[in-house]
Amino acid sequence: MKRLVAIIAILAVLGFGTSRAYDWWNFNVNTPISSASHNVTFHIDPGESPAQIGSDLYDLHLIRSTIAFDMYTRLTDAGPKFQAGSFVLNANMSLSQIVTALQHGRPDEKTITFPEGFPLRSQASLVDSKKIGTLTGADYLKAARDPALAAAYSFLPTLPPPGDFPYEGYLFPDTYLVDPSLGAKGLVAAQLDQFAAVFSSDWRSQIAQATPGRPKEDIRTIVILASMVDREANNKNAADRGNVCSVYYNRLRQNIPLGVDATLLYALGRLTPEPTAAELSLDSPYNTRKHAGLPPTPISNPGKEALAACINPPVTSYLFYFTDRQGTTHFETNQQDFDNDIQKYGVSAS
Questions:
Q1: Residue 337 lies in domain
Q2: For the chain, how are helix, strand and coil distributed in percent, rounded to 5?
């Protein structure tokens, strides 16, 4: 406490004034840089100085002031206690919380990043490739199928549809710090906890209200739509997510089959290549060329941007889209213009 008083006194002498000095300290040390949740993987190399650590945190927009970081680490004698390794920090952590976290890393913990739009099969393969202790992809899939999860997480379907992956869509893609001692259940719980944090009460209230011109929505509907968006949309252009979802809403409203080949690929158990002519004739509920309406389940685990795009899509008249050989997505309102665009630009898979 004496050190804090001394620091505030020094700031006051430097021209801040006692009240302003306290406000500056509280703002920079105790107030997070953001109220939004956003995980950031942070690395400390062996022997790295507190000054360099502070500079790295500042560059990643995790703290507001390297001066405040230096003062706080000196005040708390935290500098010598920082541990080398990887940490998952969050933009909604205060400087003081970050300093505490950097002193309590576990050397056996590893980070894993699940990309947006990965189905559970692909997430399990990623778990295998990371070699986190004895954790395997099979363990992960078993944990993700546990029927007890529905009782612990209200957003999960209580009567999941039949299939290998009843909770596909809810294993949120993000960066996680994995403690091997917690096993696959710990990783799955972390992903479900993150989904609950991202799919906020504001979003839930919003989708509970009827929207003119759109089918009735619930969490399941939004997750299914977003799971297709993350498989289909050009992630380099944020606006494409909303436009793609607007196509789905427009087709659902007019009872036009969605025609999303990614849904059939999901049933076939692969991400690429595109379905063959024979496969396109398969009578599967995931064949959205043959069957109108949504597929039975999500086809991937969508990220925050895709979820947001499906909760608040733009109002358009688009009924068609495709991505050309240059990676640009084109949207059209009628079959003729769609066919003309394909003739002119070609599609990415051709």
A1: 221-345
A2: 50, 10, 45
